[in-house]
Amino acid sequence: MPDLAQRLADVDFRIGEAARAAGRDPGELTRIVVTKFHPASLVRELHALGVRDLGENRQQELSAKAEETSDLPDTRWHFIGQAQTNKARAIRRAAAVVHSVDRERLADALDAAAEPGDAVLDVLVQVNLTDDAGRGGVSPDGIEPLAERIAAAATLRLRGVMAVAPLDEAPVAAFERLAGYSDRVRAVVPEATWISAGMTGDFAEAIACGATHLRIGSAITGPRPPRA
Ligand SMILES: *Cc1c(COP(=O)(O)O)cnc(C)c1O
């Protein structure tokens, strides 16, 4: 079984290949390592290997791990999961970026959770690429109102769009739709150029379709242990 350093190097090699195949500069891509279910000790190992961008999809786990590793310099935590509005303050305290803003009430709660001296919070609009409203993400017809709401929030900065590919569709078809949604967000906020897409199974396709932020877990961390 290859070790963590080998798996990380292998994924970075494959990211570089996919970028070059798409005529893109690998240096414009941010690889976020998703550490969910894994202990804080894995975050330390990743940090020692040069990883600075880390992702979690549950607020409690994010808060605990960020706290346990707060001595590590230059880490940036990305929150990528479903968020409850009553957890907005905790998310803001731990995360530098929230990828999963999918409704106006959540944008409002994150904005209201700012405390004096807080940095502006980078956020992305999560778009639902499926017909199943339970999958998370705003439905495409709600993109502009949500983008406008975020743009009007003094303590939030809209950086782009995020999505998870549906299970029952070729990832390229889904990510091409996402690129169109990115265009629509940029019509509201021109500097919102980030596209957060691509996981272990589909990051090469996401890169081909313009992804700028890849959220990669198990290909790097190995299989996830069962949730405690
Ligand atoms: C877990 C998770 C990932 C990473 O998944 P892998 O398939 O392990 O790479 C990416 N994005 C979200 C939203 C996740 O919850």
From TrEMBL:
Entry-linked CDD domains: PLPDE_III_YBL036c_like
Residues bearing PTM N6-(pyridoxal phosphate)lysine: K36
Cofactor(s) required, per the database record: pyridoxal 5'-phosphate
A Pfam family hit: Ala_racemase_N
Keywords for the protein's UniProt record, in alphabetical order: Pyridoxal phosphate
Keyword Ion transport: no
A Gene Ontology molecular function term of the record: pyridoxal phosphate binding
Domain Alanine racemase N-terminal: 42-225
InterPro entries noted in UniProt: Ala_racemase_N, PLP-binding_barrel, PyrdxlP_homeostasis
Function field: Pyridoxal 5'-phosphate (PLP)-binding protein, which is involved in PLP homeostasis.
NCBIfam families: YggS family pyridoxal phosphate-dependent enzyme
Family stated for the protein in its record: Belongs to the pyridoxal phosphate-binding protein YggS/PROSC family.
PANTHER family (UniProt xref): PROLINE SYNTHETASE CO-TRANSCRIBED BACTERIAL HOMOLOG PROTEIN (PTHR10146), PYRIDOXAL PHOSPHATE HOMEOSTASIS PROTEIN (PTHR10146:SF14)
Protein name: Pyridoxal phosphate homeostasis protein
Organism whose genome encodes this protein: Microbacterium paludicola
